[in-house]
């Protein structure tokens, strides 16, 4: 008795949403055709069907991974801009803005992982930020310490690997020690990775990679002729990640530049510059970013 | 046991319908966002034509002096149609842009360099020292042609130059190369390998993807990046709007 009702309901959804939607939107991944509509229904209904998985055993893991990776960004990088402006708009102090930003950071990380992202990189503090007023810098360093301590149980519970990249020469001993503890405690986790860039600069990253290669060449570990782009990428600070190049790079607050973040790694990253300030960037805004990402063609500098 | 199979069947059906429902919801969100962008695109087109016809006074006088160096990155599909690139350069000359870096990843525009320079009035090849020997009132434009070989490949060649110098200096055991691998050293080495190193204030990206398409990374530190859509559908009004918006940007460079 319920079977015809369910079928009628599905048919109504098809007629009123899917068919016009496919017709109107050229940007959806499936083009408007009866074959694709039927294919879509079959895929959607049999996605987690055991029989379908058994039939797919023939295809290689590489092909499956490639298909899955194309749908969702595996590595999302975020430039956390707008904390001070957010606080100004509300008549609050700068430190309140940074605290709100820190809280948003953890919430957004949860959303990202829930939607299938493997790696999240956060541009928390740039080399240029040392020029800010001393009390603001001290506030930010204190925030890092507080949040590393308070969120450690969460990282361990959710098995999230934490890596901190950047120039560590100016960071305090206490924060360095805490960073070491967090990295050590989470180094064996896989599948979820948060990279926090503190005192990071894209140019510095390239230079330290050059220095690293030079040292290896001096020590006879590599030949000079073997120094190429691949060798360089293995020395960049993002070598800690399974996916070193971000698929999607988000900068909040409407500014349209990457400000010395991931200069080498972002060559073919999708850039998304929403106007919303970082403390206001929530799940809905991230969903919009993902929808944007999925709608664009990605051709990595060559014809597909 | 008799009830087990029908229960499993019902449960499997419920799961499939649930998954289908979630998938349709995701598609519905796509449709809503697509419709929004279509409406937004129509709005933008109307605004662009209004700007081109001079209806908006804000765009009739732009402080072009703030834009010392402009870069244009073109998707390889768009780069094959040099006529559009030439028209864009003519527009830029009209607006008063004095220096532009033209980039495409495969160097198609580099190959069409002679055609471009012969066709765009007032255009000439940007010299290595970057000096533009003409008065600001002249409608002339210096053009630099860039490709992906000026990006990572150039950085590797420059890194090799620094490496050779470092190894020749016979550094002591604990030396980390601090005196050989600095930003200014790498910038200088890039000039040696032919990268003029002109840092653009604004990068206009023409293509379907909002990405800088592999534009030389070393130059992109504080560059404003604006996605303009496909070169096939470029509009003079959109170009004016992007440049005008840039002149209003205030950067704090992280401080």
Automatic annotation (TrEMBL), chain A:
Lineage: Eukaryota, Viridiplantae, Streptophyta, Embryophyta, Tracheophyta
Family, as annotated: Belongs to the UPP synthase family.
Annotated pathway: Protein modification; protein glycosylation
Keywords attached to this entry: Membrane, Transferase, Transmembrane, Transmembrane helix
Co-factor requirement: Mg(2+)
Native species: Cardamine amara subsp. amara
EC numbers on record: 2.5.1.-
Protein name: Alkyl transferase
Superkingdom, taxonomy of origin: Eukaryota
Transmembrane annotation, as ranges: 6-24
Function: Catalyzes cis-prenyl chain elongation to produce the polyprenyl backbone of dolichol, a glycosyl carrier-lipid required for the biosynthesis of several classes of glycoprotein.
An example molecular function term from Gene Ontology annotations: transferase activity
InterPro entries: UPP_synth-like, UPP_synth-like_CS, UPP_synth-like_sf
Family annotation (PANTHER family): DEHYDRODOLICHYL DIPHOSPHATE SYNTHASE 5, DEHYDRODOLICHYL DIPHOSPHATE SYNTHASE FAMILY MEMBER
Record-linked CDD domains: Cis_IPPS
Coiled-coil intervals: none
GO cellular component: cytoplasm
KW Transferase (keyword) present: yes
Automatic annotation (TrEMBL), chain B:
Highest taxon, organism lineage: Eukaryota
The entry's keywords: Endoplasmic reticulum, Magnesium, Membrane, Transferase, Transmembrane, Transmembrane helix
Keyword S-adenosyl-L-methionine: no
Catalysed reactions, semicolon-separated: n isopentenyl diphosphate + (2E,6E)-farnesyl diphosphate = a di-trans,poly-cis-polyprenyl diphosphate + n diphosphate
Keyword Membrane (UniProt): yes
Main subcellular localisation: endoplasmic reticulum
Pathways per UniProt: Protein modification; protein glycosylation
Subcellular localization: Endoplasmic reticulum membrane
One cellular component term from this protein's GO annotations in UniProt: endoplasmic reticulum membrane
Transmembrane segments: 24-43
Listed cofactors: Mg(2+)
A GO MF label: ditrans,polycis-polyprenyl diphosphate synthase [(2E,6E)-farnesyl diphosphate specific] activity
E.C. numbers: 2.5.1.87
InterPro entries assigned to the protein according to its UniProt record, in alphabetical order: Nus1/NgBR, UPP_synth-like_sf
UniProt record similarity statement: Belongs to the UPP synthase family.
Name listed for the protein in its UniProt record: ditrans,polycis-polyprenyl diphosphate synthase [(2E,6E)-farnesyldiphosphate specific]
Organism listed in the record: Cardamine amara subsp. amara
